[in-house]
Amino acid sequence: MNRSRWKHIMMESGLCIDSPRLLDWILGRPWAQVAAFRFLRLRFSPNILNNALALKTEVQEKSRLFSLSMSYINVGDTYKTTGSNRTQIADMAVSDLCRHTNTPRILEVGASDGSSAAALLENNKLFSDFILTDRFSCFFKHDFFLGTIFYNSNKCLLGFKLLFFYLNLSLETPSNCDDLPTIETVNPLIATKHNIKSINHFNILTDKFAPKVDLIKCANVLNLSYFSEDQIRQALNNFKASLTPNGYLVISQNNDKYADGEAIIVLKNTDQGFEVEHEINGHDLLHFFKTANSK
Ligand SMILES: C[S@@+](CC[C@H](N)C(=O)[O-])C[C@H]1O[C@@H](n2cnc3c(N)ncnc32)[C@H](O)[C@@H]1O
Fold first, then answer.
1. pLDDT at residue 4 in the model
2. Whose CA is nearest to atom 11 of ligand 1?
């Protein structure tokens, strides 16, 4: 195991209670956040998702607590942070493009629990199909005496929970997960309202979507803190191969450094490559693309 793996294990392992209500209570109190996350090293395993689903409360509240829980799950280099209505500028751009395209098929990549697609899904007359995907689209679990072993959707060992301690290993060697029960990642509100029973598996670094779609939304996934420049180019090639000619890619990032807390780039899939149709708030990845003024 290399140094970065050890560092990951040290950072992402710790006390683990997996209570969505406790997490909600902590997040409402800055002093509790410092105590819980910094001093007690509170971490969360995928079991918190099943605990959120088992809550006896109405579906809106369950959905909120599910997304909150999802946002604290770490897999490898990424967190599954999400929430509804966070990508409003991107959603407006996607809606506009839908009005100019004849009921497109839309693919959302890195969708986490699907909440970031909630606003668009409400407008279901705008598209013919909306496919939610993520690289870590479910978890496998194996319960044993006093604990649970978790695997990610690639069937690689994610970690162990033993009583109240979670060891997050995030290894990359596949195991045999046949017959193990899964923990689904789709938000309960998305599941009930839109009849979407699971998030589909799609890795932006390795996969091409078929049959091709007319529009791809990629929010809070493609950025230089998760991926190297080469990996971003690889993902862009995969997006290009997954889009119909003249289809669109909408890249969005939420960050307080951007005006309105969000920056987007709208790209058209042309014979010459991706061309910037428009951009808002100067997204960090703009330099990857040709603009109208580029030579
Ligand atoms: C920060 S969350 C963003 C979730 C959602 N798009 C949003 O804006 O609320 C990043 C998501 O990207 C997913 N992800 C990480 N690497 C990925 C990859 N190579 N391919 C597809 N999804 C990936 C993670 O599992 C996670 O759910």
1. 86
2. 110
Q: List, in order, residues 6 or more apart from 169 with CB less than 8 Å away.
A: 5, 9, 157, 158, 159, 160
Q: Can you give the pLDDT at residue 291? A: 65
* Gap between the Cα atoms of 186 and 168, Å rounded: 22
Helices within the chain (DSSP H only): 3-12, 20-27, 30-33, 47-53, 59-71, 88-100, 118-122, 188-194, 229-242
Whether CATH 3.40.50.150 fits 88-136+186-288: yes
Q: What is the pLDDT of residues 186-219, one digit of tens each?
A: 999 999 999 999 999 999 999 999 999 999 999 9
What's the gap in Å between 218 CA and the centre of ligand 1?
Answer: 9
**d(CA 187, ligand 1 centre) in Å:** 15
Please report where in the chains the tokens 């009930």 appear, as a residue: 192
User: What residue ranges line ligand 1, CB within 6 angstroms?
Assistant: 75, 78-83, 86-87, 109-112, 116, 134-136, 202-205, 219-221
Nearest CA to ligand 1 atom 16: 135
Rounded to the nearest angstrom, the distance between the alpha carbon of 45 and the centre of ligand 1 is 17
Instruction: Give every residue of the chain whose pLDDT is below 70, as ranges.
Output: 291-295
Asked if residue 247 lies in contact with residue 215, where contact means CB atoms within 8 angstroms, the answer is yes
Where in the sequence of the chain do the CATH 3.40.50.150 domains occur?
Answer: 88-136+186-288
Q: Measuring from atom 14 of ligand 1, which residue has the nearest CA?
A: 110
Q: State whether residue 242 is helix, strand or coil.
A: helix
How many Å lie between the centroid of ligand 1 and the Cα of residue 145? 32
